[in-house]
């Protein structure tokens, strides 16, 4: 007996699902509770169980392809198939007709007199799915656990894409990510630049009290940082990531400066940040030279009655004059926070 596996509907407005990765290859044994594949929608990445015990007889799509909701994307047979099938949506016009005739494991015709010619998918040797290459700026294929750990550790999955590491990414790939050279080193070993500033923290502290919880501390940091960078670069869209190394957490914001602070909420996006803000105000660290990361990095620390600001950047990320203007603008907003509301 052969069971069909269909692309599930994970949202009311979902028409297709992006297959992030197959956890089983054609011919593999599988249990009903095993994770068969990971699917990504516009809001989440979900691990989908096989639902049946048996063997993977056919996969009708490859990692990196989008399949319509309700379409058959795999077959699970009760017995081990002799010739498991691996097909691609781009090369297979419609797997449904094949499924309709699948009454035996993997629907492989038996050899013998009178048999018709075998179809190409049935005679093709089984192969492991090959992830489709992702264009720069496109979706990054990664498991939910890898995404979560990368965010918690302040790691950029986009750096793996830039380094040519094959997708999809799993937890083990984070070790590869940690070992990658910095963007500055990859650009030829150019030393990162480093400028500092100080501003009295009293006015900013009073401003946070005045907000009275209408906006989170992270949202305020992100909005001030984004506005300062936008004033320098004129960018239409900006993503800012706020890191808390001491607490081991991060939050990402998309264009947090373009609306009221109360509307600045963490965003679910894979886009690489244009600016990173490292919040050390709750620690004993008062500053330092941290080197360039994947984006210009603003570090805020407490030094007595002041906020100590540090901007680390690589020459290919930001020009010197632009960096000075960015830090001056950010310090000015901390000194006169009501500027952000005008």
From TrEMBL:
CC annotations in GO: pyruvate dehydrogenase complex
Domain Lipoyl-binding: from-to ranges: 2-77
InterPro entries: 2-oxoA_DH_lipoyl-BS (IPR003016), Biotin_lipoyl (IPR000089), E2/Pdx1 (IPR045257), E3-bd_dom_sf (IPR036625), Single_hybrid_motif (IPR011053)
MF annotations from Gene Ontology: acyltransferase activity
Chain segments annotated as coiled-coil in the UniProt record: none
Protein's UniProt keywords contain Plastid: no
Source domain of life: Bacteria
Region (Disordered): 86-146
Reported cofactor(s): (R)-lipoate
Keywords assigned: Lipoyl
GO biological process, one term: pyruvate decarboxylation to acetyl-CoA
SUPFAM superfamilies in the cross-refs: Single hybrid motif
Any Pfam family the entry gives: Biotin_lipoyl
Record protein name field: Lipoyl-binding domain-containing protein
């Amino acid at each position: 007996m052969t069971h069909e596996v269909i692309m599930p509907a994970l949202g009311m407005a979902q028409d297709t699902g992006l297959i992030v990765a197959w956890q089983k290859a054609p011919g593999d044994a599988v249990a009903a509770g095993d994770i068969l594949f990971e699917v990504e929608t516009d809001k989440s990445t979900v691990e989908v169980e096989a639902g049946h015990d048996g063997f993977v007889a056919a996969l009708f799509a490859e990692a990196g392809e989008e399949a319509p909701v309700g379409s058959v994307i795999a077959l699970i047979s009760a017995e081990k198939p002799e010739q498991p099938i691996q097909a691609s949506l781009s090369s297979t016009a419609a797997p449904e007709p094949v499924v309709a005739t699948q009454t035996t494991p993997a629907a492989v015709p038996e050899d013998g007199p009178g048999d018709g010619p075998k179809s190409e998918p049935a005679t093709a040797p089984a192969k492991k799915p090959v992830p489709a290459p992702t264009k720069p700026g496109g979706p990054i294929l990664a498991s939910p656990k890898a995404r979560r750990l990368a965010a918690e550790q302040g790691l950029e999955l986009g750096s793996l894409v830039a380094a040519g590491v094959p997708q999809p990414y799993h937890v083990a790939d984070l070790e590869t990510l940690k070992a990658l050279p910095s963007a500055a080193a990859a650009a030829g070993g150019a030393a990162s630049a480093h400028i500092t500033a100080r501003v009295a923290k009293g006015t900013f502290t009073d401003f946070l009290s005045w907000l009275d919880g209408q906006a989170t501390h992270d949202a305020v940091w992100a909005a001030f940082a984004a506005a300062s960078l936008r004033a320098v670069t004129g960018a239409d869209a900006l993503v800012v990531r706020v890191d808390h190394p001491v607490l081991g957490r991060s939050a990402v914001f998309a264009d947090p400066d373009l609306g009221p602070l109360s509307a600045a909420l963490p965003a679910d996006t894979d886009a690489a940040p244009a600016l990173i803000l490292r919040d050390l105000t709750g620690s004993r660290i008062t500053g330092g030279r941290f080197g360039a990361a994947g984006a210009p990095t603003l570090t805020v620390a407490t030094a007595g009655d002041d906020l100590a600001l540090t901007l680390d950047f690589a020459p290919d990320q930001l020009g010197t004059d632009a960096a000075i203007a960015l830090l001056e603008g950010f310090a000015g907003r901390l000194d006169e926070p009501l500027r952000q509301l005008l």
